[in-house]
């Protein structure tokens, strides 16, 4: 979807289901089945927001991240561009972690443009940027490219992301990699079918797939993607994140069943990160005010009823469902402790 201003998961299926395996020389997040775990063994279901930091007057989140943290969010998806300096990336990752949230850094340069995927790969493999990711590898997730491509064949999709995985791993980045669906993030069937071959192509076996909820149609038609995703993810143990969503509207700016979706995702224990916090106003659906959660990025200055509901008031809101891992800074009294037996092993 075109936005305002600009446009280790380690495979442990062979281990007992209550065991989280971590490689002794890699200090990153991991996955057991479809669930995300910290390096300390805490299971985390991601709950948070997106923000367009690379287009912001607060590019390192010094003022914005403490406001987001007031919701109780345990994650933030951070928009970057190839022009976003490594020094800013380092600062915003530090600030996110200090505020008790997991940084998910994404490259926005390929939004809707398959031929720009290489620009994002070059960004992550740049020496100064790769060094930042390695420095913070205990907490970072790298979302390779935001919504790359519109109509992309599965063969091209697999070839493009296999190349991305190989090049990113070649510079010593060991963290889990998040891969978006094409068609502005809305495509999810090919995405889910692609997880197994992409995960097999990754030497770390650390791939999460992510879709964005800008689907349109009748209310029932807008529910179909959620239902199909939940069925596939829970049946096939696919690590999945709703990287932008639930959203209060589809790309047509008409209302979507976001409250219903929040409840379904909570029951399925699937992570979500709504678009977007609002320090940088959205260009899409501006008249209908569908996407900005806040006015000016301030907690409590809700710009829409949907924003308030997703953040604090709905029973399935971030405030009521997000739990931070106890091993992160400012984790809070209700933080998640290791609930599974951890075993150190070489995989």
Structure description:
This protein is of the alpha/beta class. 31% of the residues lie in helices and 16% in strands. The chain has 10 helices and 13 strands. The chain has helices at 64-69, 86-98, 117-125, 127-135, 154-170, 189-201, 219-236, 258-268, 305-313, 318-321, and strands at 19-22, 30-32, 35-37, 43-44, 47-51, 75-80, 102-107, 141-143, 177-180, 207-212, 240-244, 271-274, 341-344. Strands 5-6-7-8-9-10-11-12 form an 8-stranded parallel barrel. β10 (207-212), α7 and β11 (240-244) form a beta-alpha-beta unit. α2 (86-98) packs parallel to α4 and α5 (154-170) runs parallel beside α6 (189-201). The chain is globular, with a radius of gyration of 18 Å.
Features:
31% helix, alpha/beta, 347 residues, disordered N terminus, three-stranded antiparallel sheet, 10 helices, eight-stranded parallel barrel
Q: Which SSEs are present, and which pair or pack?
A:
Blueprint lengths: L18 E4 L7 E3 L2 E3 L5 E2 L2 E5 L12 H6 L5 E6 L5 H13 L3 E6 L9 H9 L1 H9 L5 E3 L10 H17 L6 E4 L8 H13 L5 E6 L6 H18 L3 E5 L13 H11 L2 E4 L30 H9 L4 H4 L19 E4 L3
Helix pairs in contact: 2-4, 3-5, 5-6, 7-8
Cα-atom radius of gyration: 18 Å
How many strands, what sense, and barrel or not for the largest sheet? 8 strands, parallel, barrel
- Note the gap between the termini: 38 Å
Question: Structural class, judged by helices and strands?
Answer: alpha/beta
pLDDT average, as an integer? 91
Strand order in the sheet with the most strands: 5-6-7-8-9-10-11-12
Number of helical regions: 10
What portion of residues belong to β-strands? 15-25%
What is the number of beta strands?
13
